[in-house]
C-alpha cells in the first residue's frame, strides 16, 4: 500500500481539526458522502441548546466546506483571507437558495509537513 499524498494528508488533517473543534464545543460532527462533497459540502456540524442569549431553537446545523493549504495566509483585519480557484465555489457557499447555512473552514499548515 502506498502512503498518502501530501494533498490527502492535508485533507485528513482538516477533518481532524474540525472534529477536534466540534468536540471541544460539544457539537456533533460528521463527514458527508461523496455526493455532498461534489456540491461543496465536506462535513456537517450539529449543536444542541440551550444556547447563549436564549431563543427558541434547541438544535442547529451547519454545512462545512473544508480546505487545507500550505499557502501563507493573508491577514485582513482580525482574520485571514483565502482565495478559491473559481467563483463557483464561493457562490455555492453564500447562496440564499439553500436551507442550511454553509461556511468555509480553512486550515493553514506549515510549508514543511514535518514542522
Overall description:
The chain is of the alpha+beta class and 115 residues long. It has one domain (6-108). It is 27% helix and 30% strand. The protein is built from 3 helices and 6 strands. It has helices at 6-24, 34-37, 87-94; strands at residues 28-31, 43-48, 59-69, 74-76, 79-81, 102-108. A 4-stranded mixed beta sheet has the order 1-2-3-6. Strands 4-5 form a two-stranded antiparallel ribbon. The longest helix is centred in the first third of the chain and has 19 residues, at 6-24. It is globular and about 50 Å long. The two termini are 25 Å apart.
List the helices and strands and how they pair.
Layout: H1 6-24, E1 28-31, H2 34-37, E2 43-48, E3 59-69, E4 74-76, E5 79-81, H3 87-94, E6 102-108
Parallel strand pairs: 3-6
Antiparallel strand pairs: 1-2, 2-3, 4-5
Amino acid at each position: 500500500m502506498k502512503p498518502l499524498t501530501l494533498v490527502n494528508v492535508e485533507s485528513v488533517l482538516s477533518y481532524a481539526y474540525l472534529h477536534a473543534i466540534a468536540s471541544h464545543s460539544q457539537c456533533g460532527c460528521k463527514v458527508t458522502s461523496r455526493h455532498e462533497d461534489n456540491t461543496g459540502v465536506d462535513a456537517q456540524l450539529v449543536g444542541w441548546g440551550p444556547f447563549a442569549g436564549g431563543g427558541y431553537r434547541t438544535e442547529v446545523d451547519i454545512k462545512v466546506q473544508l480546505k487545507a493549504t500550505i499557502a501563507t495566509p493573508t491577514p485582513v483585519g482580525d482574520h485571514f483571507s483565502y482565495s478559491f480557484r473559481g467563483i463557483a465555489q464561493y457562490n455555492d457557499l453564500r447562496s440564499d437558495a439553500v436551507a442550511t447555512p454553509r461556511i468555509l473552514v480553512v486550515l493553514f499548515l506549515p510549508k514543511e509537513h514535518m514542522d
